[in-house]
Design a protein that fits this description.
Layout: H1 10-15, E1 19-20, E2 25-26, E3 33-39, E4 42-48, H2 52-64, E5 72-76, E6 79-83, H3 91-115, E7 127-128, H4 129-132, H5 136-143, H6 146-159, E8 164-167, E9 176-178, E10 184-186, E11 192-195, H7 197-201, H8 209-212, H9 217-229, H10 233-254, H11 260-273
Helix pairs in contact: 3-9, 5-6, 5-10, 6-10, 6-11, 10-11
C-alpha cells in the first residue's frame, strides 16, 4: 500500500477552505488519498485520485448530481470534494448479520437510481465494457482453466448486450454508504458503459470472501438480486463468472492481494451454470 503524504492535501485544504476532521488514509487497490474534512461546518471527504479510472469516476459522480450517489461539492484535476455520509449503518455488517437479502435489495435499489436515464449528456470519459474485459485475455492464455470459461462467457455476453446503461463499475457493500436522510449513497465509481447486469455481479462477490464462497450463498443471492433487479438469473450468473475471472486476473497482475477468493467464486458460478 502506498504511504500517506499529508502534504498532498495542503493545496486543496487552502483552495476549498477546508478544515481537517479526522485522519487521512490511502485506499487499498486504487491508492487514492482520502481525508475527512469540514467545510463551513458541514462534513465532507477530500479525495485525491491517482489511478485514471478513479479520476474518471469523479466526472461520473458529478453527472449523477447526488441522485443515488454522494454529492460532488467541488472537483478539479484529480481532486474531488464529496459530501460525507455520516450514517452508522453498514451494508457489509447487515449482510454478515443475517440481513444478506436486505443488503442485496438495497444495492439493487441504488443501482436502479444510478442506471436511470438523465437529461444531461454523460461524461466523455466512460469506458466501454468490452475494453474493460481485455485484461482477462492474458490471464486466460497463461492459466487456462476457469479463466477460459470466464473469457468465453464474457465474450458471449458482450457479443449480445442487453439493457445498455451508464455503469458504476465497482458497486459493492463498502461502496454504498448510509447517508442518513439522503438514503444510501454510492461512492467510488469506475465509469463504464455497457449491460446493466454487469453492475449487479459484484454484489454476489461481496461483502467478503468468507460470505461470498459460503455453501449455497451464490445461488441464493443470485435469485434475490435477479428478482429485485428484473434480471435473467442464468445471465446474471454468467456476469458473475465473467467478473470474478476478470477480478482474479487483475489481482494476479497487481500482485498485492490474494486472487483465490475471486477464482473460487468463478468456479462456483461456472458449476451453477453447468
Amino acid at each position: 500500500m502506498a504511504e500517506l503524504n499529508p502534504a498532498a492535501f495542503a493545496p486543496w485544504l487552502e483552495r476549498w477552505r477546508l478544515t481537517p476532521d479526522g485522519e487521512g488514509f490511502v485506499t487499498g487497490h486504487s491508492r487514492s488519498l482520502l481525508l475527512p474534512v469540514a467545510r463551513d461546518g458541514a462534513p465532507a471527504m477530500l479525495k485525491i485520485a491517482v489511478a485514471p479510472e478513479e479520476i474518471a469516476g469523479g466526472a461520473l459522480m458529478e453527472w449523477w448530481a447526488g441522485d443515488g450517489a454522494a454529492r460532488v461539492l467541488a472537483r478539479e484535476e484529480g481532486a474531488i470534494l464529496l459530501e460525507r455520509a455520516v450514517g452508522t449503518r453498514s451494508l457489509a455488517a447487515m449482510a454478515r448479520d443475517g440481513g444478506d437479502d436486505a443488503a442485496s435489495g438495497i444495492l439493487c435499489q441504488v443501482l436502479a437510481r444510478l442506471h436511470a436515464p438523465r437529461k444531461a449528456a454523460p461524461p466523455s470519459t466512460l469506458v466501454p465494457l468490452d475494453v474493460w474485459f481485455r485484461a482477462l485475455r492474458p490471464a486466460t492464455a497463461r492459466l487456462g482453466g476457469v479463466f477460459t470459461e470466464a473469457l468465453a462467457t464474457a465474450d458471449r455476453l458482450l457479443g449480445e448486450p442487453r439493457d445498455i446503461a451508464i455503469l458504476h463499475g465497482d458497486l459493492h457493500h463498502a461502496n454504498v454508504l448510509d447517508g442518513g436522510d439522503r438514503g444510501w449513497l454510492a461512492i467510488d465509481p469506475k465509469g463504464l458503459v455497457g449491460e446493466r447486469g454487469f453492475d449487479h455481479a459484484n454484489i454476489l462477490c461481496n461483502p467478503d470472501a468468507e460470505t461470498a464462497v459460503a455453501p449455497g450463498r451464490l445461488a441464493a443471492q443470485a435469485w434475490v438480486v435477479a428478482t429485485a433487479a428484473d434480471l435473467e438469473p442464468r445471465r446474471l450468473l454468467g456476469w458473475v463468472l465473467a467478473y470474478a475471472g476478470l477480478s482474479a486476473a487483475w489481482t494476479l497482475e497487481d500482485g498485492r492481494f490474494d486472487s483465490t477468493p475471486a477464482v473460487e467464486i468463478a468456479r462456483i458460478a461456472a458449476a451453477q451454470l453447468a
